[in-house]
Amino acid sequence: MTDNDVITRWVEGYERAWKSNDPADIRAIFTEDAEYRTRPHRQPWRGHDEIVAKWIENGDGPDDVTFEWEPVLVSAETAVVRGKTDYVDDSIYHNLWVVQLAPDGRATSFTEWWMEEPKGGEPASE
């Protein structure tokens, strides 16, 4: 299995958990002691119990979102993923994820950066 296969399987698991909000799906993609950072400067959610609780508390519905992604950089231990999240309310977010992977393909650390795309074709300020 290639490093790209590992991150593809992980992102597919993430999407499955995103749509289901099922604790088993969420636990399946993180190690027991994983850290999940919703923004780089925030304190992480730590371990399965906190990750599951916070995930569900902040969860989207199964039909609320579509997601496209591509790997930017992938090694055996680290993957950087660029994504685009489209919500049914017409909000669009651009994402950058850094995923630290255990040998079994689960994440030991996940950090996301995201920014909302301006609505109505407004130019982004430089």
From TrEMBL:
Pfam families, alphabetized: SnoaL_2
InterPro entries with a match to the protein in the record: NTF2-like_dom_sf (IPR032710), SnoaL-like (IPR037401)
Stretches assigned to the SnoaL-like domain: 11-110
Record's protein name: SnoaL-like protein
Coiled-coil regions listed in the entry: none
